[in-house]
Amino acid sequence: MQPESAMTPGLDVTVLVSVGRHPLTGRVRRADQDARGVELARSLANAEVRLLHAGERNESSDAALRGYLGMGFSELALLEQPEGADVLPALAEALDATSPHLVITGERAERGEGSGLLPYLLAERLGWPLVSSLAAVESVENGVATLLQALPRGQRRRLSVRLPAIVTVDDAAPAPRQSAYGPARRGTLEASMGPVSNDEEWAKWQVQPARPRPKRLKIVKATSARDRFKAAAAKSDGGGGQVLTDVTPTQGAEAILTLLREENVLQ
Amino acid sequence: MLDTLLPILIFSALALAAVGAVRRIRLWGQGRPSPVPVLRGLAAMPRRYLVDLHHVVARDKVIANTHVATAGGFVAAMALAIVVHGLGLGSGWVSGVLGWLLLAASATMFAGSLFVARRRRNPPARLSKGPWMRLPKSLMAFSLGIFVVTLPAVGVLPADAGGWLVALVLAAVVAWGLAELVFGMTWGGPMKHAFAGALHLAFHRRPERFSDKRGGEGRSTGLKALDLEDDQAPLGVETPADFTWNQLLGFDACVQCGRCEAVCPAFAAGQPLNPKKLIQDMVVGMAGGSDAHYAGSPYPSPERGEQPVGEHQGSPHGPIVAPAATKDGKALVDAETLWSCTTCRACVEECPMMIEHVDAIVDMRRHLTLEEGATPGKGAEVIDNLIATDNPGGFDPGGRLNWAADLELPLMADVERAEVLLWLGDGVFDMRNQRTLRALIKVLRAAGVDFAVLGNEERDSGDVARRLGDEATFQSLARRNIATLSRYRFECIVTCDPHSFHVLKNEYGAFYPPGQEADYPVWHHSTFIHQLIESGRLRLAPGQRARVTYHDPCYLGRYNGEYEAPRAVLQALGVELVEMQRSGYRSRCCGGGGGAPITDVPGKQRIPDMRMGDVRETQAEQVVVGCPQCTAMLEGVVPSANDEEVAVKDIAEMVAAALDTTPAATPVPRDASTPQAAEEVLS
Ligand code: SF4
Ligand code: SF4
């Protein structure tokens, strides 16, 4: 961010960080999107950044969380939760208590449910606005943040949001800095027991490794290099979609349901 | 009158030298502790000087003789002058003999100083100027002055010849010589190298690098392990005082001869590194101050041609590299300087003062990577890949043998014991290197070698992580590889990657669990193939008519002293070998070591292009290499329009193409009960 951008002194930022999982080897690590969130927070001038994690605690999760400490933090607040607990109430309570101006988190977790719903549920519960796919925080003035949201194909949308707010980052956010080994192992994990609420839904679920599904091939009939490039660079938007405007929530939900049935996601 | 003046001059020079020595020693004492055997080191010093140091100096005959005459003459003349003029000892014929000896010593020294003066007339760019330009005059002043004042002592001149005016002039000349040569030695003049150098030889951090009386080769090239036990200790070298005291002492020994600068590939490529300047910067840092008085070639700068001196300064406890937060601020050295090094060791090989540049550079990189998280370029990504997938490219570690699906390589996990453990290296993920590996396997099978591979159990050796300063990831990889290796039985490890070779051979030893040790030899494939040829297990059909040249990989040659085997194999192939001007221990790096392609610091030209230029000079059709990294770097060179393509071939590919596939006329004597076996593998 431009250093000259005016920031209200002492912007309180909390980054929600999770334990990640490497896509190829399954080894724990700092989650990529959460790390991008930390990077974004670090680049804010004049911000007081806290790291917060809620989840199960063991040796391997500690190692992964230390990855965030290595980005230049001396401590990370850790709300210990039993396996399979719903971390939402614990996080909501902690955020309520510390009342930061801005909460940054990755779009979705790399392990567990990974539904990407947590930020939305949190926003709903706290009654804060949520902005997804954040690319940059341009300025914060008088409790209003000017944000840059990333849209497909490199487009950006400027938004003004009243704080406190929750923002999520995905791969459009700047890449995280390297995690340094020395600070990572010297930093402390400040553990406390958060309120525990068991996730009954989750308990009923059956989890099994995903089978790789054949990829849908995109057949490009391009005659020139320019067309091939355009086809390769285009974000596939499925072609056959439809845009519904001015419909009631029920109509919208109906349309989504129909699509899911067509695609055999729901039977 | 001289009889009174001379003792005063000599003893005040000695006293001032002693004061200077204490001050200098305190500068070194700022460094971290490093235990040394004091008496044994001092006792070994003369041999280290006369044998090991001279071995390096003698590569330039004229300079070697100049130095012997000047330094030998000075030491003798000074000792005798203390006796004759300082103490006035000896009477009668004794004083006469001592006097004549002193005359001879100072005359020798004078002769030497004439050669020093000659070299200073048109000094090559690598030599420092500044105070060094007055050194020949000071040497002459001392030797001439002492010579003349000694003449009366042997009765050639009367004691009061010339009167008091001449005596005063003589005394002044002698005083000048004493100032430069005696107390200048400890007060930071050019002669400092003699004082610091002698002690550096005695207390060197790698005593094992010196030869011993049994003629041991004395090679010590593995990096020293960083202690990661104490989790509060800062890691690596942040400030000059974070070096060990004997490293600081070593920096102080530099004579600014610039031999390191002349061979440094990064300097030649115009990257911002000059090993001589780097060592001088450390000297500046340990005393505190700016580099404005440095009088040699500065660091090149791709934008400005060269970095002007005077912009950088440091202090013993100040940072060497300005921390990221003060990005445009400068400290002692810019980070790019440290990341330009390919760790080729050419500088260490050439340094007559036995200074360890690579150790120092890696020590400083360790701080940047482990404490600052500031590995540049693709460094952070490579390290993350190594942590998550055990290979630098981030490939699926379960796919290490995909390239060999048709080769049915025996796995250690199945056979558990084999004659040879074939270490494949990360080249398994690289299509070019897979060709080399196939060739090597064909050769091994032709020779009937019983080998097995680790397959997916193999991990990156840790070489690149270590050179990038990530000692933690290196040690983790090393420990896990060691655990895998110790599950199997084999007689030796063979690898076609000199980097894995070096790490397995020289650097893993420190990480074996207590009570265990690496009890197997490690061979580079060129050495192993040579053994196979020598023992008659491998039959070649010579008759290749190519004109080839051979590029010595740094990690095989300078790191491990293997220059002969690859050449012997080429000879057995019958090809015509033409040497490049820079070959053997003077081989020029391909630019691929030390993570340099990953950090990718810009320069004026690329190192592999320069090396390919060396190759073209020989007019060879092929350049033979023995390293996946060299293959990649040299093959990446695009020939300019009017240049011929030069093929880059691994030595294993050369051998595989020359296998004698006709049935053996006199079968190699092997187990007589299975005569079929030999036939089968040969066909
Ligand atoms: S470091 Fe060694 S080779 Fe380089 S200038 Fe100094 S003494 Fe010479
Ligand atoms: S190791 Fe090689 S690249 Fe590094 S400073 Fe020495 S000569 Fe230069």
Automatic annotation (TrEMBL), chain A:
Domain Electron transfer flavoprotein alpha/beta-subunit N-terminal span(s) in chain numbering: 19-200
GO molecular function term, any single one: electron transfer activity
InterPro entries listed in its UniProt record: ETF_a/b_N (IPR014730), ETF_b (IPR012255), Rossmann-like_a/b/a_fold (IPR014729)
Entry keyword annotation includes Transport: yes
Top-level lineage group: Bacteria
SUPFAM superfamilies on file: Adenine nucleotide alpha hydrolases-like
Protein name stated in the entry: Electron transfer flavoprotein beta subunit
Organism phylogeny: Bacteria, Pseudomonadati, Pseudomonadota, Gammaproteobacteria, Oceanospirillales
TrEMBL record, chain B:
Any one annotated GO CC term: plasma membrane
PROSITE patterns, alphabetized: 4FE4S_FER_1 (PS00198), 4FE4S_FER_2 (PS51379)
InterPro entries listed in its UniProt record: 4Fe4S_Fe-S-bd, 4Fe4S_Fe_S_CS, Csal_0991-like_N, Cys_rich_dom, HdrC_iron-sulfur_subunit, Helical_ferredxn
Keyword Nuclease: no
Residue ranges constituting the 4Fe-4S ferredoxin-type domain according to the UniProt record: 245-275, 329-360
Region (Disordered), start-end ranges: 293-323, 662-683
Transmembrane segments: 6-22, 68-87, 93-117, 138-157, 163-183
GO molecular function list: 4 iron, 4 sulfur cluster binding; metal ion binding; oxidoreductase activity
Keyword terms: 4Fe-4S, Iron, Iron-sulfur, Membrane, Metal-binding, Oxidoreductase, Transmembrane, Transmembrane helix
Protein name: Fe-S oxidoreductase
Species assigned in the record: Chromohalobacter marismortui
Lineage, opening ranks: Bacteria, Pseudomonadati, Pseudomonadota, Gammaproteobacteria, Oceanospirillales
